[in-house]
Amino acid sequence: MTQVRVGVGAVVRDGGRILVMRRAGAHGAGTWGLPGGHQEFGESPEETAVREVAEETGLRVRAAARLGFTDDPMPEVGRHYVTLFVACTRAGDGEPVLREPEKATALAWVTPDELRARRPELFAPLGRCLDAGLLDLNRG
């Protein structure tokens, strides 16, 4: 790929915890990342976040705030992303479920401190997001 793509990571919060997924299939397989995906033409980052969370987990969420972005070159797989992070709040009841098992193998609610402890297991954009302080609870 010779172009930079836009990815969106949905930071779904439940109290002090954040929803993460163990990636499968695509680049970063086996690492923990946020629900999210490619921003589609004509779609806002907020719309991408809401759509991707619903597709991947079945949760209904509302976009609350733009938290920031990371620059994510991945030369080992020939890709380069700019990842936009959007804080989301639940808009309904229910627990998340794996709706796309070819894309993720597990779900977990974790605190930012638990993410820091799992740092070697994090998908690169999530690690950079954490390092930049974008997951601090006073944001979004």
Tell me the strand percentage band.
35-45%
Provide the low-confidence segments as ranges: none
Which word captures the global form?
globular
Mean pLDDT: 93
Quote the distance from N terminus to C terminus: 33 Å
Provide the domain count.
1
Largest beta-sheet details: 7 strands, mixed
Describe the structure.
By secondary structure, the protein is α+β, with helices and mostly antiparallel strands. It has one domain: Alpha-Beta Complex (Nucleoside Triphosphate Pyrophosphohydrolase), CATH 3.90.79.10. It is 19% helix and 39% strand. The protein has three helices and seven strands; from the N terminus they run E-E-E-E-H-E-E-E-H-H. Strands 1, 2, 3, 4, 5, 6 and 7 form a seven-stranded mixed β-sheet that branches. Strand 1 and strand 2 form a beta hairpin. The radius of gyration is 14 Å and the shape is globular. The chain starts with a strand and ends in a 9-residue tail after the last helix. The mean pLDDT is 93.
Give the key terms.
alpha+beta, Nucleoside Triphosphate Pyrophosphohydrolase, seven-stranded mixed beta sheet, 3 helices, 7 strands
Question: What can be said about this structure in brief?
Answer:
The chain has 140 residues and is α+β, with helices and mostly antiparallel strands.
How are the secondary structure elements laid out?
Layout: E1 5-14, E2 17-23, E3 32-33, E4 36-38, H1 45-57, E5 61-74, E6 79-90, E7 104-110, H2 112-117, H3 124-131
